[in-house]
Write a structure and sequence with these properties.
- This protein has 607 residues and is α/β, with parallel strands linked by helices.
- The chain contains 19 helices and 14 strands.
- It folds into 3 domains: 122 residues, no CATH class; 99 residues, no CATH class; 251 residues, no CATH class.
- Strands 5, 6, 7, 8, 9, 10, 11, 12, 13 and 14 form a 10-stranded mixed beta sheet that branches. It has a two-stranded antiparallel sheet with strand order 1-2.
- A hairpin with a 7-residue loop joins β13 and β14.
- The N terminus is likely disordered.
- Bound molecules: zinc ion (ZN) (2 copies).
- One zinc ion binds next to α10 and α11.
Length: 607
């Protein structure tokens, strides 16, 4: 059942390459890696390039990676004897007759070949040898043998073929659910704070650290599956049919959790950059198109650098001028309760009490501090849960705690995720803060994700690391983890509304403010407390770009002191019952009643 992939140091995603059927072959990752390296260097191609040639693709790019790989892989798995015969047949078909030679002159002349993939695609010799996975030396030997002995067999030992494993387990809905739950829990425990910050519900990428492999995750799954679902002590007691194969596991992973990935190379963290790179690849058919795409790509990189410099500049400013507060904020991945590094097994197949984590980081005087809001799954406001109104409530609280007193200016850096940050509700909120007289000026800048290391992520990283090595029975334990995780990390709990309140900003502001047209095209927003600027937002598309302004107020007489309603928390009885029945068992005494009490016997407020 095991394959030699455990020793592989690469992890190309076979599904992304469209090569999933090769999942159970030996050394597949190495073979892909070698070919990938070859493909990445256009100098690998020694084809003659004509001047004025529009199509600048290499000979192998014209064939495409998948097709080239498939042929290459079949050839790699031939025995030496098979390879000889196959290659000789190809050589005979590719030979170029030299018509100028008389038959008497045929001694010691070099044979020329028109190398090709098939009759559509020609290849240079370098690419041909790569396709056949043979050295120049071996190639010459075979050519010579063909000359002297014809297609007779050369004498050498055989090498074996890579084996194919096929799954025998029937994959039903129940098994799918088990795998899905496992991967979900696995991502909560091991996932990294997403440097791409994709937070919409459909595409929230979660990255696993680079010390993990598909095969290592599969091995953990197998172990926990044996112990907790099949309740078998060792693999030896197992009939082979009882557990799914690595191949099937990979298929299910791709089907059920396509967003759980391994952390890509630093250069591939930006979505746009990745898209540009593949567009460039395609545009190679036509040099004019290629130049156009390249110019757009450069423009994007320039823009990203500009925003990064702006961000760094804000950090720099806040170092020396203490009247400036500079903050960044973001949601992290949830953590779950209970957790124990020794007994993680069963919990991989259940869903524990979720605790949401939101961080507001302040850079000031060269020291970074992060306030981390801990919000239990039954402490979120009714209705919008993790939407813009929720986010702004936490920022509102954080500002009062550590970024209001003695500050004249507030600089905010956000990621460019429109759902939670770049929305009208946020603009109205900042306008309102200016009206409250909290600051003379507020500026908000949106970074282009994937190009800058975001401070919040490193604070989240410290928390996650300590969490994985700690025993967690209640939200208080997470509070301790945060406070001990690093010098600058501090936590705050909701505590029935003692920590903060859930104000319904949305309800009030919607009545009093107007929306900003084309909000998405702007990267910079500025608000200012001069009387003539009441209700105005100044916007520009890039750092240092030209500003335009809009009046956001519907009604100039709006008093900033109007009362704001408070949103009650969301209570889900069915979920409470699940936690009580399925999870309570795994919680240690005397903490069982903190989050896992019996909802039936409890006098709970239900609204
Ligand atoms: Zn070539
Ligand atoms: Zn980019």
């Amino acid at each position: 059942m095991t394959t030699s992939q455990e020793t592989s140091q690469y992890f190309y995603d076979l599904f992304e390459l469209g090569l999933e059927e090769y999942g159970d072959y030996k050394n597949i990752q190495e073979v892909i890696h070698n070919l990938k390296i070859f493909f990445e260097h256009s100098t690998s191609c020694t084809c003659r390039v004509l001047e004025k040639q529009k199509d600048i693709r290499t000979c192998f790019e014209k064939i495409g990676f998948k097709k080239f790989f498939q042929r290459h892989f079949q050839i790699v798995n031939l025995t030496d004897k098979e390879l000889d015969l196959f290659l000789k047949a190809q050589l005979l078909a590719m030979e170029i007759e030299n018509k100028n030679l008389k038959s008497s002159e045929k001694i010691i002349q070099r044979t020329n070949y028109r190398f090709c993939f098939n009759s559509t695609y020609s290849l240079c010799q370098t690419a041909f040898l790569m396709l056949y996975n043979i050295s120049n030396h071996k190639f010459k030997n075979i050519v010579e043998h063909l000359h002297n002995e014809g297609i007779n067999e050369r004498i050498h030992g055989n090498t074996g073929r890579a084996p194919i494993y096929k799954t025998k387990v029937n994959i039903d809905e129940n098994l799918k659910l088990i795998v899905k739950n496992f991967l979900n829990q696995y991502s909560l425990i091991h996932g990294l704070p997403s440097p791409m910050r994709h937070r919409n519900d459909s595409g929230a990428f979660i990255y696993l650290p680079t010390d993990k492999r598909f095969i290592s995750v599969y091995k953990e799954f197998k172990k926990f599956y044996l112990e907790n679902i099949l309740k078998i002590e060792s693999e030896n007691d197992l009939e082979e049919e009882k557990i799914i194969s690595y191949d099937s596991f990979r298929r299910l992973w791709n089907e059920l959790m396509p967003n759980l990935k391994f952390q890509p190379l630093a250069s591939d963290l930006c979505d746009n950059c990745v898209q540009f790179k593949s567009k460039l690849q395609l545009a190679k058919r036509n040099i004019d198109e290629y130049n156009n795409v390249e110019a757009e790509f450069n423009e994007h990189k320039k823009m990203a650098n500009l925003e990064r410099d702006h961000y760094n500049n804000n950090i720099e400013l806040s170092k020396s001028d203490l009247s400036i507060a500079h903050i960044c904020y973001d949601w992290a991945q949830n953590v779950t309760i209970p957790y124990s590094p020794q007994q993680a097994g069963p919990l991989y197949f259940l869903s524990g009490y979720a605790v949401h984590l939101f961080g507001v980081c302040k850079t000031e005087g060269g020291i970074n501090k992060q306030l981390n809001f801990l919000i239990g799954e039954d402490e979120l406001p009714k209705g919008t849960s993790k939407g813009a109104n929720t986010t702004l409530n936490l920022v509102y609280q954080a500002l009062q705690i550590f970024a209001k007193n003695g500050k004249k200016k507030l600089h905010i850096t956000c990621d460019n995720c429109s759902g939670q940050n770049k929305n009208n509700l946020s603009l109205w909120f900042w306008t309102w803060l200016i009206m409250l007289g909290w600051y003379e000026e507020i500026t908000i800048n949106f970074m282009i994700p994937g190009h800058t290391k975001f401070i919040c992520d490193s604070f989240f990283g410290h928390i996650k690391k300590l969490y994985r090595n700690s025993k967690v029975n209640q939200i208080k334990d997470i509070e301790n983890i945060i406070n001990n995780s690093s010098e600058g990390n501090e936590s705050i709990q909701y505590k029935n509304g003692l920590g903060w309140k859930w104000y319904n900003f949305e309800e009030l502001f919607e009545k009093k403010f107007k929306t900003l047209p084309n909000i998405k095209q702007y990267h910079h927003f500025r608000f200012n407390n001069l009387p003539e600027n009441k209700g105005k937002v100044f916007v520009s598309t890039k750092s240092g770009g030209e500003e335009k302004w809009f009046n956001l107020l519907k009604d100039n007489n709006f008093s900033h002191n109007e009362p704001i309603n408070i949103i009650p928390i969301n209570i889900d009885l069915e979920r409470k019952l699940y936690l009580y029945k399925k999870i309570r068992n795994f919680v240690e005494e005397p903490h069982k009643d903190v989050h896992f009490s019996n909802p039936d016997s409890n006098e709970m407020e239900i609204n």
